[in-house]
Amino acid sequence: MRRRLISGAAVGAAVVAVCLLAPLLARQAVILAAALYASHEAVRLAAAAFGQTPAGRRPGAGHAPEGVFGLLVGGLPVLCVALPGLAPPASPAAVASGGLLLLALGGLALRLPRNRDGLAWLGAAAVTGAWIGFPTAALLRASAGDAGGPALLFLIATVLLSDAGAWVGGKLIGGPRLAPRLSPGKTWAGFASQILSGGAAAWLVASIVAGAPREVAGAPVPIFVLGALLAAAAAVGDLFESYWKRVAGQKDSGRLIPGHGGVLDRVDGLLFATVVFAAAEALAGRI
Known about the structure:
The chain has 10 helices and 2 strands, in the order αααααααββααα. The chain is mainly α.
């Protein structure tokens, strides 16, 4: 527990520094680096899943593609989807991300085995591109501009504090399991606590951090409701990654962060919450 608290505090301090002190290019470089590492972990989970012989695959068929090509299987689709997020919202590049993803998958298909294992890897690459790439593009857009740092901190802090609320609520209250086949430790009480904590965290962060959103950019949605929606999306994102880990037979996506697992373990909820945040911004832009 001590190691978990120390590493969590270090990561939290780094997040605050990146959001509020780092220049834009450095901030977005960190986002892209984290996305690429998360895609690497997703590929490793897929390799573990494909290597399970009860699924009908040959022994050893699940080994991840090696070398630079192994990195491209997960990273290239993510980059193709995420990089257009650096462009202005109205730029044709932002609209072309789906086409770039298809081109990336087409290029990967030329190198993958021409059998069901190759097709499985192609599917894993496509899911990784959508799962990590689109939220990364949204994060790059959210982090741009003068208010980009505070907006990014608002989003991350709301998700992290809602996660903490879910853990506390689940431990103190217990009760029926939320999704026992995916994550036996999660309860409905913890889920309710996460939603309430997300609303309270959004209001608190918006009150403390200068430049953070204090309403949904003029939309008639209280900041508390936005925080609750972000927390609910984060809970779904956590369960989605739990599905991958269950299929792969792994407890964590990696060991990079002591006591916390891998990067994907830390951003699984953030990825889904980012999509909700981007939708709220888009809605506000039409009002």
